[in-house]
Design brief:
Blueprint lengths: L4 E7 L32 E5 L14 E3 L19 E5 L3 E5 L5 E5 L5 E4 L30 E8 L5 E4 L6 H8 L17 E8 L2 E7 L14 H4 L8 E7 L8 H15 L1 H4 L3 E6 L6 H13 L4 E3 L8 H14 L13 H6 L6 E5 L2 E5 L3 H7 L5 H13 L2 H7 L7 E4 L2 E4 L3
Parallel strand pairs: 1-3, 2-4, 9-11, 9-12, 12-13, 13-14, 16-17
Antiparallel strand pairs: 1-8, 2-7, 5-6, 5-8, 10-11, 15-16, 17-18
Amino acid sequence: MFIDIARITLKAGDGGAGAVSFHREKYVSAGGPDGGDGGRGGNIVFVADPNLSTLADFRYKRKYTAGNGEPGSKKRCSGKSGGDLVVKVPRGTLIKDAESGRILVDISGVEPVIVAKGGKGGWGNAHFATPTRQIPRFAKPGIPGESIDAVLELKLLADVGLLGFPNVGKSTLISVVSEAKPEIANYHFTTLSPVLGVVRAGEEQSFVMADIPGLIEGASDGVGLGHEFLRHVDRCRLLVHVVDVSGVEGRDSIEDFDTINLELAKYSAELAERPQIVAANKCDIAAPEDTLRFRGHIQKLGLPFFEISAATGAGTLELVFEIAKRLQELPPIKEYEVEEISLSEMESKAKNEFAVTKQDGVYIVDADWLGHVLGSVNMDDYESLQYFQRVLRNSGIIAKLEEMGVQEGDTVSILNFEFEYVR
């Protein structure tokens, strides 16, 4: 089954916590803090795999998690970094943020791309030793890895896209000019998924052609299969519009041509301006006056026109040479640029995001990131409590509590840890 869109969840590894440890050795007094740093969390890396052609694998596995960094240990030993997770996708896959639709990366090249970064490991208590604080009993927690709800969208990498109504001979044409072997039959929607074929126009010249199925009137609005597959025309540098001029389907060639172009314009104004070559197919069984009438319509539009018969191969070689010539004059296949994160989205993803509410006289602080901080604090150690207080003040939580009218002795709850507020 051809699957070209999927939604998945990515979770990079969390950084390991720093260690609280003190040097212990016989005959060595006051060895000092020697807690090591936590290991880095693993990244989630995407790479293009030429052996993949659909996103079918992502129907069955939707959550991808990289390894967490290990905590630090004594003797200033750092924790082991979490392993990176490598995810293979077909070339041409766009990775988008599911919430905003922002393009995160276009997997069109061969280089691996980090999509979700692992968190840094926390510092061990050895980092916090000073002349006035010689026995720090706290360490920093690891930073959580990035978590992303992502949409994968496959947009085929092809130089040329074949357009036209069902049963006009697109599949036959691509089978004649390339090694592709699509299903060919005398009924509509024989082709249910895009077909790619490599066309050779000389010893050192070739291009990739795609047969785009399902285009009928209303395709841009989801009628037929067109809405699902119009996205695969987006990257094509050149469009070859195949039209049946024989009339065996009982349709008018001019109306067919204008209808498909209208659907392109509805889907994308940019796509409607893409260079086109018109191939009048089934000329071997068409009435000469019908072919001549259609030729006149195309010539008025100033488009290149070729009479072909995909079934017999007549005119197909001349069409291939013209395509190759045109491609030499056109820019390379389109690659999508990464869209910068907006200010509002940046603020929503801020590490120190929090909310404070008051219920039954208790000030409740909602901040998931504080869980890692709380886990590293020794509530029986004065210096550790001072560190926790600095985190609350630097993040703006103390200022928010005071703005809401907190008084000395009031109860504050942070992730079910309750304490009395003291100025």
